[in-house]
Amino acid sequence: MVFKHFTVRVLLSLIGLMLSLSVAAYLLVYPGYHAAMLIVVLFIFYQLHLLFAYINRTNTELIRFLDALKYADYSQRFRMPEKSAGYKELGDTMTQIMQRAFSSRSEKELELRHLKALVEHVPVPLITIEDNGKITLCNNSARRLFGAYAVTRKDDLQQFGVAFADKLSSLVPGQRQLVSFEIDNMTRKLAAQATQVVQSGKQLKLISLQDIQSELDKTQIKAWQDLVSVLTHEIMNSITPVTSLAKTAVALADDARTQVTERAPEMVDIIEELEDVSSAMQTVASRSDGLMNFVTSYRRLTKLPPADKKEVFLHTFLTRVENLVVNDWQQKGISLDVIVTPQGLSARIDNAMVEQLLLNLLKNAEQALLESDSDSSTDSEKAAEKRVVINVSLTKRGHIEIVVEDSGTGIPDELVEQVFVPFFTTKREGSGVGLALTRQVMMAHGGDVKLSKSDLGGAKFTLTF
After folding, report:
1. Could you report the per-residue pLDDT of 409-448, keeping only the tens digit for each?
2. Claim to verify: residue 104 and residue 202 sit in the same structural domain
3. What is the pLDDT of residues 247-275, one digit of tens each?
4. What pLDDT, on the 0 to 100 scale, is given for residue 58?
5. Which residues contact 131 (CB under 8 A, 6 or more apart)?
6. Of 40, 182, 290, 434, which residue is the least packed, with the fewest Cβ within 10 Å?
7. Closest CA to 451 of 414, 423, 424, 422
8. Which residue among 248, 281, 302 closes a domain?
9. Do residue 314 and residue 348 come from a single domain?
10. Does 86 have pLDDT greater than 60?
11. Is the alpha carbon torsion for 227, 228, 233, 235 positive or negative?
């Protein structure tokens, strides 16, 4: 309709212009009509001006309309005077197009904000890696995963482990891999999966990093607990009657020896044999009791109660732990340093569980120091080296870290991965329960425990809550 009005208007203007030119040509043939000729010529120029203005107004509005679309300026309106036939409809049509474009853009922006909000609240960390090595952290989970560490380039991934960086860089779209992520003295297992996406004409590799460490730990602990439960049940069923019969046999042998001694003291050989039998049965009974105590200690692995977490000021808490060992250690020449930075640091922990955990670690450190001291020459310099340090601080990601280290001989590197396994121990009289329980206590607090070499020379246990 708009273009129909425009065509009619232009056509009528051209017809009027042709008629004016015809009149001018007629007056030009017959001289003497100078005044009329002047009026006709002026009218022709006026008609040309009107036609040019009419066409130019259309071009101007079209250019303004296209510029408004180009620069997304949806505030423009195209309203023409009522007397401008065709222009009013053209202006109304342009205004409606602008309003629809604005409405469509608003809907897309709302949808985009909605999608961004969904991505931000996805619990799985998402990152993108471009061909030029640029990395973008796509959501809050990713930012929490890397904490205060700067991650903007592919090379920045190496601070979380060289193997981690290599696996992410070589991850093929559609592939799923298990990667080890090291941060704040914690090692987490992440399930990494890549997808190829295109954004603004650029190909990106979208990688999801799902933390499955807790599921792996729970599965492993559950397997150990099931195994320990079966073993302890079977051993207790077998050893209980043996212990009872051994003690009964000891009592019968002692009674028989007493009667023979009273009635026939001359039967020395029989008395000695009964003494040997009593001694042998006492050994069996003693070893059976030891085995039952050993099995009973392992039952604790399957009956660890849920952590009763409460807010605890760590400086006060560690001062109490220090008082439990310091008097005994002073006699043995062992020094204990407790450093809490800042001093007002607090944490939600199970007071009894963590206290027992630290006492076990301090006892291990004491034994390591005494063993290393007995294996070397004793002098004042060596005695001064018997030192244990407890250092508490905050990590870059806001986790509380308790480090217990000593100046003993430490644990060989090949045994570091095995010390937290139930039944494993490096001590002659150890049960292999203490460090396994330490790991379970830390899991109950949602944390982690790691063993490494201390700068003091001995073992370094890092507890991250």
Report:
1. 878 777 777 777 665 566 655 555 667 778 878 878 888 8
2. no
3. 777 777 777 777 767 777 767 677 677 67
4. 67
5. 202, 203
6. 290
7. 414
8. 302
9. yes
10. no
11. positive
Backbone angles phi, psi at 147, to 5 degrees: 60, -135
The 10s digit of each residue's pLDDT in 162-218 is 888 888 888 888 878 888 888 777 777 888 888 887 776 677 888 888 887 666 666
CA pair distance 375, 372, nearest whole angstrom? 5
CATH code, 425: 3.30.565.10
Tokens 């340093």 -> residue: 337
Q: Could you give phi then psi for residue 128, rounded to 5 degrees?
A: -120, 145
C-beta separation of 79 from 91 below 8 A = yes
What is the average per-residue pLDDT within 279-291?
A: 71
- How far apart CA 301 and CA 232 sit, in angstroms, is 11
Confidence of residue 459 (pLDDT cuts 50, 70, 90): confident
Q: Which amino acid is at 191?
A: A
Distance in angstroms (rounded) separating the CA atoms of residues 227 and 301: 11
**Are the C-beta atoms of residues 376 and 423 closer than 8 Å to each other?**
no
Average pLDDT over residues 230-254: 70
The distance from CA 285 to its chain's CA centroid, rounded to whole angstroms, is 52
Q: Which residue has the tokens 């991650």?
A: 151
Same domain, 156 and 207: yes
pLDDT of 6: 63
Residue 364's contacts (CB-CB under 8 Å, 6 or more residues apart) are 434, 435, 459
Instruction: From 284, 302, 320, give the residue that closes a domain.
Output: 302
Structural domain count of the chain = 4
Tell me which of 20-24, 316-320, 430-434 is least confident.
Answer: 430-434
| CATH for 183 | 3.30.450.20
Please answer whether residues 180 and 188 qualify as being in contact, where contact means their C-beta atoms are separated by less than 8 angstroms: yes
Going by C-alpha positions, the residue among 151, 172, 155, 463 that lies closest to residue 321 is 463
Is residue 82 very low, low, confident or very high in pLDDT (cuts 50, 70, 90)? very low
In what side-by-side order are the strands of the sheet with 387-394?
335-340, 387-394, 400-406, 459-464, 448-453
Compute the distance between CA of residue 396 and CA of residue 186 in angstroms, rounded to an integer. Answer: 12
Average pLDDT, integer, range 353-375: 80
